[in-house]
Amino acid sequence: MRQHILELLMKKFSEKHRMKRLEARLYIPLYEEDKEECNEMILELAKLDFYLLQRLHREEVKEICEWYHGLESPRELFYARHRPAEAYFWALGVYYEPEYAKPRKLLAKFIATITPYDDTFDNYGLWKELQPFADVMQRFCSTSRSHFEKIILSKFQLYTYQI
User: Fold this and answer.
1) Per-residue b/e over 53-89, b at no fewer than 16 CB within 10 Å?
2) Structurally, how many domains does the chain consist of?
């Protein structure tokens, strides 16, 4: 078992690039193989935890996909990538803990929403057509910044008990 774990740890990606909870599925079978060190209770709890987490992720992916396909942009932007499940997986890399379901879904929706616009800029639009859209986005960002900064500061003060 130790040799298997060493091989897994020596993969070309460092630990910071791996998703910890998804990696559990690699270790559960190895732990199960090692009969002398295997504690059945711990093994069952690990499997149960993994299956519950997998079920949560499946439900969230289903919710994100249903939400996305209810939007009009997939129909209007036919040339763009429409991958809400991939967007969810990206968000899962940021918020992998089960208790962060709401921010994970929000980030996945944000990524799924902006991907078609990114494809528009990269592949479809002409510079003359895209320049007004870029100008509007820059104006929105510059006028909204002070408003968002006030909101973020007030939330930070509320959560750190500085109010």
Assistant:
1) beeebeebbebbbeebeebeeeeebeebebebeebbb
2) 1
Give this prediction's pTM.
0.68
Alpha carbons within 13 angstroms on the beta-carbon side of residue 126 total 2
Q: Is residue 90 part of a domain?
A: yes
Q: Is residue 93 part of a domain?
A: yes
Domain assignment present for 15: yes
Which structural domain range is residue 114 located in?
Answer: 2-125
User: What are the tens digits of pLDDT across the range 83-130?
Assistant: 999 999 999 988 888 899 999 999 999 999 888 878 877 777 778 877
In a domain, 159, yes or no: no
